[in-house]
Amino acid sequence: MRPLQSRNCQRWSMTTMHQEQRTSGLWLKTEMLSQKFCKFRPRILIDVSHIDMTTTVLGFKISMPIMIAPTAMQKMAHPEGEYATARAASAAGTIMTLSSWATSSVEEVASTGPGVRFFQLYVYKDRHVVAQLVRRAERAGFKAIALTVDTPRLGRREADIKNRFTLPPFLTLKNFEGLDLGKMDEAADSGLASYVAGQIDRSLSWKDVQWLQTITKLPILVKGVLTAEDARLAVQAGAAGIIVSNHGARQLDYVPSTIMALEEVVKAAQGRIPVFLDGGVRRGTDVFKALALGASGIFIGRPVVFSLAAEGEGGVRKVLQMLREEFELTMALSGCRSLKEITRDHIVTEWDTPRPRHLPRL
Predict the structure, then answer these.
(1) Which of 78, 79, 148, 352 is deepest in the core (most CB within 10 A)?
(2) pLDDT beyond 70 at 119
(3) DSSP code string of 91-144
(4) Could you tell me which Pfam families the record lists for this protein (predicted)?
């Protein structure tokens, strides 16, 4: 993944945006799983000749606790876009989450073959559009809805404003193509921000989580939780799971990184529903950190899009295999033979270590 990320991917114009975010320093603080934040406490003299990384998510058995997060407009990265990602996820035996703002429709992704797939949902002002989209995903064989709840308005994405970001004219938001909502018009600043302001429902509330349960039998995952208070409300609202996410650190500045918010959310959920982490994972060691802090699995976004831009389906397969191998090695060197053996005792965080006290001078 690291060589793929640094490669010059001319097909993907959004690379410039991410480079600007990374060099600003703020993105590093709020997105990446800092090496200083967490240290391992490995156990030794344990037979690790067999490592079992399989797990079950919402009743579906997958090969590893590493899944694919929703990322929009993937055909900007590669001509095959979401088709390639779906095939790579299926080959790896894991879950792909399709974005509402995909450049391939739910039906098109379903046509790529078998696989466990979730659908990420933005709630539009027109609830008939939302209901229609959810039912289409259900008919197409998607297994869960990941409701994004942290975007009543789009955050100030200055690179998008500078670049006057919009979709290229040869691409559309395929899930809305027949509803006259698939095009993103050019704007004086960001075409995406204008689109969100015109279409996304700012009145979204916890009542809508319950409303979704009345129009679909699919389990609802609440994506975008960062606090214990909202974790408890998600449980009360009947959510099937929680995804700890800060939207790739692109919504609100100075929110915590996902790894720093994770344990608070896990403790508030009290094991009643699974908690997942989305964002900041770059190595198999990061997966281990998240599971040690109580996550039931993790989702990756940027690594998939970088690798998709570089090598298409093969790149996504490669990044999933790299993370799998790194995670398996981390488990072995920590003395863990299965996911249930990964515990909080295997790591120490910066808030676990007593800070040195400075004695007053005489």
Answers:
(1) 78
(2) yes
(3) HHT--EEE-TT-SS-HHHHHTT----EEEEEPPBS-HHHHHHHHHHHHHTT--E
(4) FMN_dh
